[in-house]
Amino acid sequence: MREPIFVKQNAKKWERFESSQGQGPDELADSFIQITDDLAYAKTFYPKSKTTVYLNGLAGRFHQSIYKNKSEKGNRFITFWKYELPLLFYKHRKPLLYAFTFFMVFCLIGWLSAMYDENFVRLIMGDRYVDETNANIARGEPFGIYGSDSEFFTFFRIAANNIYVSLVTFVSGIIFSVGTLYHLFQNGIMLGAFQYYFFSKGLGMQSVLVIWIHGTLEISAIVIAGGAGLVMGNSLLFPKTYTRMESLKKGAADGMKIAIGLVPIFLTAAFFEGFVTRHTHMPIWLSIGILGSSAFFIIWYVILYPRKIYNTAYGT
């Protein structure tokens, strides 16, 4: 893109950013992200131009405005989850949607495979898990496996495993997004076969009310980690106007922020699995309340809230 066209397309936005510098650091965070994106582009294609100098100065003023006092760490922490992460969700809404779509297709494949092959569940879940669950069903405690370990041990084990799975799912995106799709495939197939198993035993709705108390947050976060992996992988595949390396750096940075931002969600899901899911005979209203609240939070924080603050910030 020629420099005059680049300036013409973005001049009004930069003027709006300059006029907003009197606001607090939280309100400036989303603008700072876009300014640094434009600065990176200008440095790549117009390294010695006045436009690059101007954007560098503007970015510097934004940086000082956001991080100027000693409470920087606390402000930065709040800004990240209140503005920066939701805006990344909005910016990369397409990769997140692709991850969700792929995952649902893989779940369906797992369900159908278990339906047409009675040995598929054992292949995916393992003989030990299936045999233990069959025994629990026979004695009237189909979900007794969730209470087989102590609360704290279950919490730490599940939290560590889920964070590990999400990071691997994200990092695998460096293999041209194929690695991330592979891990989404693994988890989708497992979930589809897992759910079919309980429905085939006549325990479908009961399994939803028990397992999805923690599964709503856990599975949602894994899908979002998949979206983060696609962000990084697609930045390598489709660099657009950036150099491939510059595009990869930007995609990797955004993807990592998304993956790190999932840690509180995984910790909450692990808490539910360790301390709540084991109470398999809790009132239905309580189970639905926890499940529904979790689903609402994901929809609000990943979809509705990011759109709202983006529209508020940019007046679209």
From TrEMBL:
Endoplasmic reticulum found in the keyword field: no
Presence of the UniProt keyword Zinc in the record: no
Signal peptide: none
Record's keyword terms, sorted: Membrane, Transmembrane, Transmembrane helix
Transmembrane stretches, start-end: 96-116, 163-184, 196-213, 219-238, 258-276, 282-304
Superkingdom of this protein's organism: Bacteria
Protein known as: Stage II sporulation protein M
